[in-house]
Specification:
There is one protein chain. By secondary structure, the protein is of the alpha/beta class. It has a domain at 221-497: P-loop containing nucleotide triphosphate hydrolases (Rossmann fold). It contains 15 helices and 18 strands. The chain is globular, with a radius of gyration of 26 Å. 37% of the residues are buried.
Length: 498
């Protein structure tokens, strides 16, 4: 490999360890993500190829000659087990004296390369990757790395038919189709990773697949604080607002972390309330003990029947006695109107919207295609704006704004990029008014409550790698324990892990 190694680490996929190297090549404008080849000799590789050929012959002899091996991929567990059984028998013939660990490794490699996603599978296991992108069979796979940004890989998909095959397999797993008549598909893998696929000639260079990887360990407020994504004062205000059932809208550009923030906010919910979440593709995760009903939209079938839209689910959720309604993204007028009506009738609503700052959020809400009356916007409590610096890859909270009675956004905290911190630019008048009206809290009591919450959040930061379930347990104890003591957090964290 030519060039300078910027980073190196290992990942494991189906029992096989792969080396990952990030290479800076002075001859290239973009750094390279190098997936180390599975460490087998050239002789073993020839034998494994022969085993694959022998498997194909055995399929043909069995009266299945018309089946393309590519079409076998991931159809069902039955086919997978059949492949394991048949190929395992052939593998034993060629490697009769191999130990079990080596045998399992070779079998897993054959499964990965022949009925899995090939060299994409190890990348799917790389927690450092946010996106995996196939643009066509004519160019390498691209990835977006959490630390290094966009990278060109040393992996190629050899044929357009293989890319289409992967798309078909992914869609079939979740009951979705991608065809020449329906060449666009949004789906997800069983792991939760979001997938978008397109077919030629809609994507003119070739068939494409874009995989947005689902974070195995969901983001927590502690992660945000430790990464300086959000200030502790903003985190405390959000906690106080959500505790007292104020609705929050999370906005920002593509890839700014809106859904991650929404997931973090949901851990602030009290444990004795019913939560309904509505998404196109399920991404949010709550602590195990929460009273939570996740719902997901469904596209129409090829005959145009069976669609379940976001609006259908939003309307239906109001009949499910929800205390909190969480919506993946507001896109259309009817969805927005129903949600604002829900706020006006006493429900707490949490949703995301594409907008780059607080004023633009108001503009997007009050103009086409959403176009809700400005008079209803004062039912919102807070707008939280997320920002992503595309040059550095850093994600930050850009603004925290309260809604005025006139339906305007008053920014309270503003991010200062040169200092990488937040400045309080206004006193939250409307928040104080609402907390006085609905919770009976004076301004002094609000400030005292915020101070207590900041103390709890600081102590959470000292816990050893707390996950969403551990923090959810602590928040639940905070709401349900009369003599809650912040000093007890280590003990509560230990209880949560039992």
């Amino acid at each position: 490999m030519a060039g300078k190694t910027l980073d190196s680490y290992k990942i494991e996929s189906t029992g096989i360890v792969f080396n990952i190297d990030i290479i800076e090549d002075p001859r290239e404008f973009v750094n390279q993500y190098h997936l180390g080849a599975f460490a087998i000799s050239s002789t073993t590789k020839i034998i494994l190829d022969k085993i694959r050929e022998e498997f194909i012959v055995s399929v043909e002899v069995g009266g299945m000659a018309d089946i393309d091996v590519e079409k076998l991929g991931n159809i069902s567990e039955t086919i997978r087990k059949g492949f394991e059984r048949t190929v395992g028998g052939i593998l034993h013939k060629y490697f009769p004296n191999v130990d079990k660990k080596t045998f399992d490794t070779l079998l897993n490699y054959l499964i990965q390369q022949n009925i899995g996603f090939g060299d994409l599978e190890p990348m799917l296991k790389d927690a450092q990757l946010e996106e995996i992108v196939i643009n066509s069979a004519d160019e390498p796979v691209w990835v977006y790395h959490r630390k290094h940004g966009w990278l060109r890989t040393n992996v190629r998909i050899p044929r357009e038919s293989k890319i289409r095959h992967y798309s078909t397999v992914i869609g079939r797993e979740v009951g979705k189709d991608i065809t020449l008549l329906k060449p666009l598909m949004d789906a997800h893998l069983r792991s939760g990773d979001r997938v978008n696929a397109t077919l030629q000639p809609i994507s003119t260079k070739g068939n494409t697949i874009t995989i947005r990887k689902f974070r195995e360990k969901p983001w927590t407020v502690v992660d945000f604080l430790n990464a300086n994504t959000m200030s502790i004062e903003i985190a405390a205000w959000l906690w106080l607002a959500i505790e007292h059932e104020l609705s929050v809208l999370v906005t920002g550009g593509t890839g700014s972390g809106k859904t991650s923030v929404l997931n973090v906010l949901m851990t602030y919910f009290p444990p004795n309330q019913r939560i309904i979440s509505i998404e196109d593709t399920r991404e949010v995760v709550l602590p195990d003990f929460m009273h939570w009903v996740p719902m997901e939209t469904r596209l129409a079938n090829p005959e145009g029947k069976g669609e379940v839209s976001m609006l259908d689910l939003v309307v239906n959720s109001l009949r499910m006695r929800p205390d909190r309604i969480v919506v993946g993204e507001i896109r259309r007028k009817q969805e927005a109107l129903v949600l604002f009506e829900a706020m006006q009738t006493g429900h707490s609503v949490y949703a995301t919207l594409h907008a780059n700052d607080a004023p633009e959020t108001i503009s997007r809400l009050t103009h086409e295609p959403i176009d809700v009356p400005k008079a209803v916007l004062n039912t919102l409590g807070l707008i939280l704006v997320q920002y992503r610096n595309r040059r550095t890859g850093l994600r930050r909270t850009l603004q925290l704004a309260e809604m005025t009675q006139e339906g305007d956004a008053r920014v309270i905290y503003q991010y200062e990029s040169q200092k990488d911190n937040w400045k309080k630019v206004a006193e939250p008048k409307e928040l104080y008014r609402r907390l006085q009206l609905f919770a009976g809290l004076s301004q002094a009591q609000v400030i005292k409550n915020l101070t207590e919450k900041i103390d709890v959040l600081k102590r959470m930061q000292k816990l050893e790698n707390p996950d969403i379930h551990t923090l959810g347990y602590i928040f639940a104890k905070y709401y349900t324990t009369k003599d809650f003591k912040p000093a007890d957090l280590p003990k509560l964290a230990a209880e949560a892990r039992r």
